[in-house]
Specification:
Number of helices: 3
Strand order of the largest sheet: 2-1-3-4
Structural class: alpha+beta
Radius of gyration: 15 Å
Helix content: 10-25%
Strand content: 15-25%
Distance between the termini: 20 Å
């Protein structure tokens, strides 16, 4: 099974998700989306695969979200896609795609829903929380 993660190594949730994937005996394709940003078509496709409105993939914290006026609910998906393509930091992470589906993995344990081997046993997150997968 191919597993792809849109990853930011500076993000603890993203690091935890990547570690869970690896603990499931998968070596994912890692896309550091700040270095290799997805195109607007890829971003739109990710939202469609996840089954959420594009707006739900926007990250507010630590981004130019407020400065760009992206809180305005009247903005079209085209405007949001333009902003996300121009400022990849606006893409919330981590996003994981597998043959079983796609998820925005916040919290990181949501990745277990789409892994072929979700039975990873006990996993200790960076903050000390323990996830028990049976």
């Amino acid at each position: 099974m191919t597993v792809t993660i849109y990853h930011n190594p500076a993000c603890g949730t993203s690091r935890n998700t990547l570690a869970m994937i690896r603990q499931s005996d998968e070596e994912p394709v890692v896309i550091e989306y700040l270095k290799t940003p997805p195109s607007r078509d890829e971003i739109a496709s990710l939202a469609e695969m996840i089954g959420v409105p594009l707006r739900q993939l926007l990250r507010e914290k630590g981004t130019p979200y407020a400065q760009l006026g992206l809180a305005d609910q009247r903005l079209s998906d085209d405007v949001l896609l333009n902003a996300m393509e121009a400022h990849p930091i606006l893409l919330n992470r981590p996003i994981v795609v597998t043959e079983k589906g796609a998820r925005l993995c916040r919290p990181s344990e949501l990745v277990l829903d789409i892994l072929a081997n979700a039975h990873i046993g006990a996993f200790t997150k960076e903050d000390g929380d323990i996830i028990q997968s049976s």
